[in-house]
User: Fold these one by one.
Assistant:
Number 1:
Amino acid sequence: MLQSMRSAAKYVWIVLIIAFVGGFLLVDSSGLLGRAPVTTNTVVANVNGEDILYLNWEQAVQNLEQQEAQRLGRGITLDERRTLEDRAFDELVNDVLLRQEYERRGISVTDAEIMDAARQSPPPGVEQNPDFQTDGQFDITKYQRFLASPIARQQGLLVGLENFYRSEIPRQKLFDQVSSDVWVSEARLWQIYKDRNDSAKVSFVAFRADADSMSKVDVSDADVSKFYNDNKKLFERPARAVLSLMNIERAITAVDSQSARARIDALRAEIVGGADFASVAMRESVDTSSAVNGGSLGESTRGRYVEPFETAAYALSVGELSQPVQTPFGWHLIRVDSKRGDTLNLRHLLIAITQSDSTASATDRLADRVSNIAAGVTESALFDSAATELGLPVSQVVATENEPLNFAGRYVPGMSAWAFSGTQIGESSDLQDAPEAYYIGRLDSLRAGGVAPLDDVKDDIRRRLERQKRVDALVPKAQALASAARSSTLPTAAAAQGLTVEQTDRFGRSSLVPGLGQFTAAVGAAFGLKMGEVSQPVKTQDGVFVVQLDEFAPADSADFALISPVFRMQTVQSLKQERVQQYLLGMRENAKIKDDRKKIQANLRRQVPL
């Protein structure tokens, strides 16, 4: 029994660690204290007058890093760390805002509430623990018996539960207060159900704002300026960096290709000799996502795979093993497990064509030479010197904040995150290692994020306003058609004016409708018409539409009556969640948040005391 208890404590503790991120301890021995610019009093942010310490944030990031690395089964990239930094920061800011809101509203939690919740409301994940189940169902008696055992205290579970509920109970009290007045009348519930289940079929004539088929329209500079001033939020842009990028390719030689072919031939011979395909794929395939399932790609139809892989797969009989097939990914062996018409159930084994040890060593030596000259330096000229001395290509690329950098169709790990981490103009990155190449970047220019200047967006605004004017110019033609159609039918009126009538299949309010789009006024107009009625002209961004309702299928009231109690519960819960999310967003938008992360990171890079 004690062994079972220990096992349970281990599993529960893992669940708690994952679920309770946010309750971080400030440890003076974290190792960060030895970094000159950072002290126990360094502030990374201030939220409505309350400080968040750099060390708390860094500890939060490290916790998330460990979880993500464990989930991925590898170390994380600099770009992934940047995402985790933002996530940890947001969690810490939200924690501060929530604590401030609890104080403002007088929300607290008692020890008795914590004890009751711990006994009666296990944290997420605990109910799935087999040690707390009887006949496959959660057994709260087993769980409560475990809580009362000495082993629960020894394993730290009780402390973890207390931390969790001390945070979770006030949060739930706040959310209950915020959403307590959410209520849905029977009429409103029926309308929500109808909105999801009504369907229609229409005929329509589209007057599209095609610039090539219409006369030129004029948009004045004053119009452009007014639109810009009235809609500045539309022109918020992330930070942008221009980089010089030097790459050392992992060039593949003929010997490398021959080596990969020899390897795939040997594996094919092994399978033909009686080895299990799935076992060999699990052991050898570099396609790790399918290798864990014995190379299984599941069921697929034509058009899913690259050539010549797809042609080779469809040429196989069930159970037949292909000859080696080369694609841009490497050499494949394919086996069809089942075939039903054009639907195949496939397995494959992939051997990538990579550098041999000798070729890789030569590439590594070159990368080391580049790194010794140019990596991590602040003298811009050293970057150019390394490229010239070693004959390496340099390309200019643009990086956008919070987006990975891609170059020549390939992901360049860490380069974008580095560019926006307080890097100085002219500074070079460390050597970045990717499967296809090594990279070193130099920051040539940096533009802060925010609202783009008018000069940068005026051409886009002008094109937008020109299109709006073209759409407006189409309204009289659409009105003439609509008026004529009401005296006859839409097809008759359209034929008289030489216009084409298009028809839709049946669609709902949220459907993507060919010709009408999705969530457009033209789609919505269909559900405001009576059978056979023709609409007034309906404007969208792309043109003007005249719509006639051909068929309408209302939601089934009998079906609604059957599911009404469950639908009400789901709808109310959804509306409460929406209310809480809106409340949290509003709380964040109205907060005074000073974010010093970039300044601190820049000073850390240059070891300048704050």
Number 2:
Amino acid sequence: MRDLPASPNAPIIVDLQRPIATATATATAADGRADVQRSAAELAERLPEALAPFAQLAYNYLWSWRPGGGALFEAIDARRFALCGKNPVRLLQEAPMPALRRAAEDPALLTRAQDLLTQVHAELDRPPAPGAVDPAHPVAFICAEYGIHPSLPIYSGGLGALAGDLVKEASDEAVPFVAVGLMYRTGYFRQRIDAAGWQHEYWLDTDPERLPAALVTTHEGRPLTVEVPIYDARVSARVWRTDVGRVPLFLLDTDCPENGALERWITGRLYVADAETRLAQYVLLGVGAVRALRAMGIEPGLLHLNEGHAALAPLELAAPALRDGEPLDAALAQARSRTAFTTHTPVPAGNDSYPAELVTRATGALAAELAIPVEELLALGRTHPGDQHEGFGVTQTALHLSHAANGVSRRHGEVARQMWNGLWPDRAAAEVPIGHVTNGVHVPTWLGAPMHALFDRHLGEGWLAHAADPDVWAAVEQIPDEELWAARSLQRAELIAFVRERSTIDRLGRGDVREYVQAAERAFDPSVLTIGFARRVATYKRLDLLSRDVDWTLSLLGGERPIQVVLGGKAHPRDEDAKRTLRAVFELKSKALVGERVVFLDDYDLDSAAWLVRGCDVWLNLPRPPLEASGTSGMKSAVNGGLQLSVLDGWWAEACEPGVNGWGLPGEIEFDHQAQDQRDADALHRLLSDEVLPAFYDRDERGLPVRWLALMRASLRTLAPRFSAARMLGEYIQGPYRMREGCGTPRRR
């Protein structure tokens, strides 16, 4: 036991014999818990003794969605915390000694740290939730990317953010859950926009030893390693563990001395462009995930494949039965009954497919090891299994090898059934067994502090534990107008302060002219309607609708009832059309008022996303129907009191009550894209001019926008519970997570 300085209220005591550890798996398993504990203890040894709680907190991301968690680390050294990408481990490693001493001598700060540590221990001490998931056989969630926190750069966008939200919700609800991904050494590309508006990409190295992660070791103290045959090599992969509340996230890493340069590069970069390397990543993710879990003593009860990247995991799940001599069909049927699959994209390019020859080279040794004829393996990835000229698709493979499949919104489920009808040629599209579980967002992660405090006062004690209950949110009707508007206005003001600083830095970095840089310092007015449009830049997202009619755009920016717009997003490095769309927006920057009323934030990430969804009054989404699978950024805006102006596609098609809880543009499919774009631009103009602006700017005698507040209340009441991760996880547990024997499996021959 270590005695820490006394607080004004009570002594603070940290028990270093009781470090933070997640609750999954057995106490004797070599699953990395002891390694995380050891890393936290070694970090604590570098610090003043009083800061030991910070070292423990740093190694579990639970701090990041607890109120005041980030502020604790920021209080040590705010500038260093920002420079470290809000990575608490790096902060404690790099903070200058005077800053650490000041923190160690601050009784109030130490009390807050101890309080949070006590909360974390209490959370991890809760027993697993009773129900469909057996604690001895947890759900194994496998995904190519995870958006847990900005300091863990293994994500690119919406798929990763959704994965992170589901993992956090599983922790909050004590659902037995483990997650597996890849430890990318350079992550996803970083973005820099030049003065002409062209996107440039670059990558930064990530050192896992400076992350809140620990290398998993065996009982003998050696790195735990699994081998996967890929192409003509036996690829070794080590395993890193990072704790996300109660859920361990295991990340496979091929940057090992046992591997050659090509094999070490397999986990070098997220969504690497090279097809051979990318296929190698998918073989490693699927097969390696199951091998790593079993090596750590974890036998999953169910695999949840989040997208098709891990489609080969059920083959490895079937490996013991195959080695015992089970026929292939019987072994696959057993694995299928323990596998659920979520498809996230209706865009054909998002469903990876590879030539049969390449797949044969990549998986030939694996097929031989599992005693599976290569042709049988290739057939699993084909819409027409007998067509030897057809390529190998990861989505088809996942559909063949899962007992349940779902899209991520009601409309996406309909689109997916049509897309993959060929796998069930004897069924009508409506009868294809692909359902839907509409995405939801982890409310504690995305909720701004002012709105959080408002809900704490008015929604009842413990409301956050019942975020999916509509009765909880019904109480927003009783929140006084003044309080609701004050919280929203404060979050808008916080966004504007962030935008002014970031846009000034971005413009200086681009080498923009002085006048345009100085405009950033005046950017945005706290009293002006603020619109957000931030997502992956792709042509079907139709960012260009904002600049299609330049005169109209300029009239909105400088009218009597003005708007201000914050933009962000990345174009795929090989998507030249999307890059040209982005450049077209920058061509307006020389126009009057654009420099002050429109900003583009470079290198959009989880951190800037949080600022935007919390502070924008209107969240704009303009996809070309039916190419928006879900669109979770709008859900994040909604829980913060933001209103939606979106095409009726993805989640908004099932959520929108036009003029009641937001506004919708037509969602019909139109093959004449030019006509569709003109129609939707006209609808956007009309809605903004005739409905959005009057609702925001018309004020009563108190200076309050009564119509806007009514829309906010309706939005919170109807959207917040329905599109929370709590509702989403509940639907997975009651639906796809319930194992059953191969119902609705595609015809393989």
Number 3:
Amino acid sequence: MRRKTGFKIFIIAGISIIGVSLIAVLIAMAWVIIFANNYDAVYSRKVILDTSAGLTAQQRTEDFSQLCEHLEAYVPTLYEYEKLYGISYDETKSYYSTLAANAENDFEYCTVIRGFLNNIPSAHMAVGFPSLSKIDEYFSARLSKNKSFVNAQDYWLDVYHNECRKYYDKEITQLVFAYYSGKYRGVAEPIDNDIYGVNKATLLTVNGVSADEFVKLTPSVYKLKYDHSNLRPFRDTIIFNDSIGEECTIEYLDADGEKHSARMYYGAEADTVIAYRDYFMSIDGAAADTISTTDSEQASYTTIGDMTAEKSEEHNLLYVCINSFESETADGMVMANSLKSISEETDNIIIDIRKNRGGYYDYAKAVIGALSDSDIEFYSEVYITEASYNKFKEERTYVFDESTGLYKTIINESVKGTAAEKKNIYLLVSDQTGSSADNFAYEFKKNNLGTVIGTNNTGGERNGTMCLDYLDISGIYFAYTRYAAMNSDGTFSSVTGTSPDIYLGQPIEAYFIRVRLEAEGKDINNLENRLEWDSVLIETVKMIEEKS
């Protein structure tokens, strides 16, 4: 069977900032994995939630404890993040246990669960949206037979829906601070309604605490990540608003360097409401009329499944963007053969996987083979916990490893190189590059196939096959991975990911250029237009021209 290690993310509402997707909340995830073990038994467990009354305070405490016990049993790198982030799992658990125990209602509790999982830097770890239709068919086929689980999802969907209804008629102004080059830079939402003067501002403090410290444990809909260039934990975005959530005081420097102070509101509850509100309004038939936008120009690139390709004679290059390795219309061999065909008579190839969160392992192998004129070896040391080893029947043989206290197996596979000749190849990565896409980046770099450019994909988790489970009391379901791959330097890819050869990030100015182009109806994915705003791509093209 093909091993599928990535996942899709479905978004209801959000803000797109340069190379990172600053989404206000994940509306759902398609859990993508194929297991040959006893998951039917796992998914037949009864959910005890009383859907007419909801959870008691005691049940929330016990429910959260079950989540922690599960993660502690099956996630092999749970305690490894502290070495890099300076935040221990026990500290995180204690903080969120208190939040769970003190949650005033079920909506607040479910956002605590989201915040807790987002505070563990594993790329595969997240809470699921309460709708069976948003679960991958492999899992939904089993879970749909569990009536108690289905009823629980209906209950939680109503919880979200009812909370959002409270704010249908409320005007909400957002202040978005996105992480750029070690600082949180301001973006008004929308940017042409900058009543607080935050566009290009720099966030200093929240309630007297520095922005860097504020993000470490505060519940957020954004994953905790690590900036290997500026050596600090960060989140893609911090969102404040003028209406919903916990009140706070923020201080920031505007674009002219003048210091400001403002009373605002924040929190995972607020962000969740803001993100879901329009979705539920549309369901209720209360959505506001949308303003039509300028028609976008016709795309100049070729689309093959989740891959786009555009050749530039002017720059003597082929720009290929692969957004996932799980296309339903073009498998790995189709992408690989297309790549070989369209790269003929082109010396330089740019492969962009900055938004690629993974997919089929075999797809990644086929594409990387098309980039090499010689055979290469995929090699990984993969680890699981003792509890995982004892409970699940694994396809591979695992042996106990004394140095880690985990069980280890070796994955060693030969990949046939099918490229006619060696090309100058540049691989663009980001902190979103994950799972099988991280495997692609890791093997690309290890086998010296070209130059890796971008930002470190901390939590990339190559070989991190997706797993799904749910809590017996609440029925809240969540994703994680039971597998961890070791890098050649002795670090886990779940912690450090794959570092680029050249660190390059996007400046905040690039965001405003991109927004202007979109407003003009320009296709921001065209190579010509990208070379106006995409700083990483611009610098890569300069490298090619200088080398030529």
Number 4:
Amino acid sequence: MVEFRYSNVEREMEVYGYDGVVKSHCRMCHGGCGVLVYTKNGKAVKIAGDPDCPINHGTLCSKGIASTQLAYHPDRLTYPLRRIGPKGSGKWDRISWDEALNTIAGRILHYKEQFGAESIVMGYGTGRENEAAIYRFANLLGTPNVLTAGHFCYGPRIATSIITCGTNVVVDYENHPGCLMVWGNNIVISNPDEYKGEPFSVSLDKGARLIAIDPRLTRIAARADIWLQLRPGTDAALALGMLNVIVNEELYDQEFVRNHVYGWEPFVKRVNEYSPEKVAKITWVPKEKIKAAARLFATTKPAGIQWGVAIEQQINCADNDRVLMALMGVTGNIDVPGGQMLFSTPKIRNVGQFGAHRMLPHEQAVKRLGAGRFRLAGNFAIINPKCVWDAILKEHPYPVKMLFFISSNPVMTRANANEVYRALEKVEFMVVSDFFLTPTAELADIVLPAATWLEMDYIGDYWKRHGYILPRRKVTQVGECRSDHEMLNDLAHRVGQAEYWWDTFEGGLDYILEPLAITWQDFKKMNFIRGEVRYSKYKERGFSTPTKKFELYSTLLENWGYDPLPRFREPPESPESTPDLYRDYPYILISGRRLPGFFHTENRQLPWMRELHRDPVVEIHPETAKKEGITGGDWVVIESPRGKVRQRAKIFEGIDPRVISAEHAWWFPEKKDAKHGWDESNINILTDNAYDACDPAMGATSVRVLLCKIYPEEKKIEN
């Protein structure tokens, strides 16, 4: 059994009458936090941070604390449902798991035989650690089409880091950087991917210098030594301008560049196209601030860059990631203590190996939707969502007949939401596995009740690149809910994949851990396993790239027909690229601001979380509010060429008067009709998914930067 090294656990149990406590691993967001789950009469009744966990050191966010409100919510799906009546009717029948899975299996086999496996699209959302099992199922089925957030969230970071230096670069907070540059990220709110806000804050308290790049005055920006308030969507230009200073003032690490970089000369030529004066005009950031930030980052060692999805949800997605890695590399901060580490995972079967990517036949892989256009994405089995909607609505390049979404709510999270809704209405058969009847689930034919993290055994942080794995131990069982892994393991037996799966999914966990010569039952008794930590590994074996160097000039992108060097592209809608449109839509809209209680579309049902944030909020500068006749607290209309939504106005001085900032993923579970208000405040009704507005290599949709107008709701404007 896992031992507890702190006496307050026993005191808590005695004082409050708890009858047990389980060490586990939270998954209410991107996860990673070790937790203590206190139980009473077989139910989880309290969640607290685990002081022994190396990820969060006992801290825990509001979402983790509210996990019990999710698990035991009265509206939670607890058994399978079959729709009766037309899509969106809100009428359902309860069915058994056997009936649900047999029906799904029958449809899968039918569509595979009649239209090919590629006519079936699997899909998953952010943050459920189910991607390995989903890809395994899809690859063994023969469909190359798995729809994820990976085209514009984390996937670009992985794809670009692999082609640049071999693996994802992660800030080494354990050794406390001397300088931190936070770029389009609010780590203390979002706790993203490999990171938690706590170690970041500790490093600041220990004296790290701080540079913040953000259009908004966040808490991080307020604390920064230098805040660069850039024009939204101009990140690549700003980073290239900083590199211009570093190169021309010879602030780069000459030994690293001389011995470990590929493409230095053409890279220097490219950055010389971005003088501080030119970049200042593009970005709205004064040239002296650009120079000061570049000098501070280059001369303070070690240094790290903390960035997030804001820079990936743009037309410059891949180049944004690449140019930030260039900043890390040329300043000598790669794989050094306190810098940007290339951590090694424990010796397990990784996500790619478990996902059976090599078992997808080549003749099926070449059918992946959009792979010919977005070749960087296709190389990593990632597809652009519009390719799926077109295959449903236009049957181009072939028809998609079935969708199977697991922990995904694309009606709320994908660009051009009206087109998404039309596609989901039209598709012949759709399955959704989730916790609640979301706007997406309401369009399904069968809905499956997914288990929360409290209801499953799994290997936590299995997919991440920080070098840790941690045991997630099952605490409770709610109704007939099943984990996605168990469900897919069962379904796989019904579609002819039995030889590649297990009697129960515990066998899958054993399979992952087998290279360590341990089983799940062994791992359950441990706190965590960490991969070997070694620095400057590239000095021994080079980088895992075609040239074995840190590729500023990407040979793979060149082979695929893309610019091998990072560059800046003007956003598809902006004062510069579309001046005529700008006259009618005179504000730059940024979307996607993170909130403490929500995780994308999730948690708006939970009382504690909704009390923190009752309504969708759009931030506008006082000058803008005065100009448009808006008072704080007003419901206002935000309009783009694609539609209108409503949110409450918040007057906020920490934003440029030419910019407004809206929240994403808003729906209203309290509205009990089948639409749940999906089209009232959903900012993705305004966003565009046109192919030429996407990143050319990664297919990322530009949901973060567009043009809009804003006005009080009661004001009538003729179209």
